[in-house]
TrEMBL record:
<comment type="function">
    <text>EF-1-beta and EF-1-delta stimulate the exchange of GDP bound to EF-1-alpha to GTP.</text>
</comment>
<keyword id="KW-0251">Elongation factor</keyword>
<feature type="compositionally biased region" description="Basic and acidic residues">
    <location>
        <begin position="109"/>
        <end position="129"/>
    </location>
</feature>
<dbReference type="InterPro" id="IPR036282">
    <property type="entry name" value="Glutathione-S-Trfase_C_sf"/>
</dbReference>
<dbReference type="InterPro" id="IPR036219">
    <property type="entry name" value="eEF-1beta-like_sf"/>
</dbReference>
<dbReference type="InterPro" id="IPR001326">
    <property type="entry name" value="Transl_elong_EF1B_B/D_CS"/>
</dbReference>
<dbReference type="InterPro" id="IPR049720">
    <property type="entry name" value="EF1B_bsu/dsu"/>
</dbReference>
<dbReference type="InterPro" id="IPR014717">
    <property type="entry name" value="Transl_elong_EF1B/ribsomal_bS6"/>
</dbReference>
<dbReference type="Pfam" id="PF00736">
    <property type="entry name" value="EF1_GNE"/>
</dbReference>
<dbReference type="InterPro" id="IPR014038">
    <property type="entry name" value="EF1B_bsu/dsu_GNE"/>
</dbReference>
<protein>
    <submittedName>
        <fullName>Elongation factor 1-beta 2-like isoform X2</fullName>
    </submittedName>
</protein>
<feature type="region of interest" description="Disordered">
    <location>
        <begin position="107"/>
        <end position="129"/>
    </location>
</feature>
<dbReference type="GO" id="GO:0005853">
    <property type="term" value="C:eukaryotic translation elongation factor 1 complex"/>
</dbReference>
<dbReference type="GO" id="GO:0003746">
    <property type="term" value="F:translation elongation factor activity"/>
</dbReference>
<dbReference type="GO" id="GO:0005085">
    <property type="term" value="F:guanyl-nucleotide exchange factor activity"/>
</dbReference>
<feature type="domain" description="Translation elongation factor EF1B beta/delta subunit guanine nucleotide exchange">
    <location>
        <begin position="132"/>
        <end position="221"/>
    </location>
</feature>
<comment type="subunit">
    <text>EF-1 is composed of 4 subunits: alpha, beta (1B-alpha=beta'), delta (1B-beta), and gamma (1B-gamma).</text>
</comment>
Length: 221
């Protein structure tokens, strides 16, 4: 449950904080958290012996902050009147919005970002695991005068991402005509057999040799 502190720049606020810290080392448990940073930002300075519990806590938080910035400081001084009452509150609000976690705790935003990265990795892995299919195709010439060697060369000249031509052989059809029977492997998400036939094998210049194509077998790998 959230704890509310007010007027930590005044004696009344420090007194309430001192009572709250009685028997405690930190605001929210035995380890420093962002709650300590928020309250630390609202307390103008170490109140000293007037509020011993606050003073002890203030020193502990200061030592943790100092350890987070180990380089030697040149020294800074402040002049002028004391900051108005609303300034500590603004500073505390700024600390709340700070993306830097000095104690290594993971914020809600960091957790969400990590979950989104993990989901993106899984989605990418699924795309990479796209299925493949093995296809056996009959490619028929126009007549017995068609040069079957050039026909096969024309068929294999089709290059597409996800298309892999395999073994082939000539099979007699009749009347001296032979057809080309050829194996091919496709990545399902990248190649459509229908498009391969209609947009490539049955268009110029390949249709000079190819009269038709038929799918003999289609198997998922």
């Amino acid at each position: 449950m959230a704890v509310t502190f007010s007027d930590l720049y005044a004696e009344s606020g420090l007194k309430a904080l001192d009572e709250f810290l009685s028997g405690k080392t930190y605001i929210s448990g035995h380890q420093p958290t962002k709650d300590d940073i928020k309250v630390f930002a609202a307390v103008v300075a170490d109140p000293g012996s007037s509020f011993p519990n606050v003073s002890k806590w203030y020193g502990c938080v200061s030592s943790h902050l100092a350890a987070s910035f180990p380089r030697k400081a040149a020294g800074v001084k402040f002049g002028g009147a004391a900051a108005p009452a609303e300034e500590p509150k603004k500073e505390a609000a700024a600390a709340d919005d700070d993306d830097i976690d000095l104690f290594g705790e993971e914020t809600e935003e960091e957790k969400k970002a990590a979950e989104e990265r993990e989901a993106a990795k899984k989605s990418s892995a699924k795309k990479k695991e796209s299925g493949k299919s093995s296809v056996l195709m009959d490619v028929k010439p126009w007549d017995d005068e068609t040069d079957m060697k050039k026909l096969e060369e024309a068929v294999r000249s089709v290059k597409m991402e996800g298309l892999f031509w395999g073994a082939s052989k000539l099979v007699p059809v009749g009347y001296g005509i032979k057809k080309l029977q050829i194996m091919l492997t496709i990545v399902d998400d990248l190649v459509s057999v229908d498009n391969l036939i209609e947009d490539h094998l049955l268009t110029e210049p390949i249709n000079e040799y190819v009269q038709s194509c038929d799918i003999v077998a289609f198997n998922k790998i």
